[in-house]
Structure formats: C-alpha cells, structure tokens
Design a protein that fits this description.
Order of helices and strands: HHHHHEEH
Helix content: 55-70%
Number of domains: 1
Largest sheet: 2 strands, antiparallel
Shape: elongated
Strand content: under 5%
Number of helices: 6
C-alpha cells in the first residue's frame, strides 16, 4: 500500500527539482519504452514457441529471461521512479541472473518434445509402442 504513495512522491519531487513538463515527459517516455520492450519480448517469445513446434528445444531462457523482460516492460509502464529502477535492474541480464540466484530460485530444465521420427509426428508425454506381433 505504501508503494503507490512513494511512486507519487518521487514524481512530485522530480517535478519540483526540474519542471512539471519534465515529469510528464518522463512518465510518457517510460510508458512508451515499456510498451516497446513488452512488444519486442512478446514477438521473440512467439518466435521461440514456433521453434518448439518445429522440434527445437525450449530452454530456460523463455522461463527466466523472456518473462523477466516482460515484467520489466510492465514495470516501465507504471508511472514512478521506483518501479523504473526495478525495471532497469531486471533489464540488465547479469544483474538479473545474480539476483535470481541470490533469491534461491531453481534453474528451470530445458523442455524438448518427444519425437517419433518414423511418422514425423510430435508426441508429448510418455508412451509405449506395442507392436502387432506382441499383442497376438
């Protein structure tokens, strides 16, 4: 409950130190930057998911890096300097990974769909093939 008031306070202080127009420009600029980051990251995620449909391995970067960049885009869209600072921390890759490791998050395992190379059909999950000879 305290965060929105602190965000408002930082924007008021920015307006006092510079001018009201500068504070308004700052809010509009970070909003635009947040939308651009979110849009770019969404397009990259769609590309990676299409690659998975073609049999490529889905690594941990979708879960960690892409989602973190999406969070950074959303944080940039909120008006205020505290959320913008948090977004910058998330955007910087090495700092983000070090912070995630310090918080004790598990490293996600890469996901690769099982492939039946004879029929070129993707089968997700576990299966057992029973030949016709074994069933007789």
């Amino acid at each position: 409950m305290l965060l929105p008031w602190l965000e408002l306070f930082t924007l008021i202080q920015l307006g006092i130190e510079t001018s009201a127009l500068t504070a308004i420009f700052y809010v509009l600029a970070t909003l635009t930057l947040g939308v651009l980051v979110l849009r770019r990251q969404g397009m990259q995620m769609i590309g990676r998911l299409q690659g998975v449909q073609q049999g490529k391995v889905l690594g941990s970067e979708l879960l960690v890096d892409d989602m973190a960049m999406g969070l950074a885009g959303v944080l940039l869209m909120f008006p205020g300097m505290i959320s913008d600072f948090a977004a910058v921390v998330v955007i910087i890759g090495p700092l983000r990974r070090r912070l995630a490791k310090a918080l004790g998050g598990q490293q996600p395992q890469p996901y690769a769909p099982k492939r039946d190379f004879e029929s070129d059909v993707t089968i997700e999950g576990q299966f057992t093939r029973i030949d016709e000879e074994d069933s007789k």
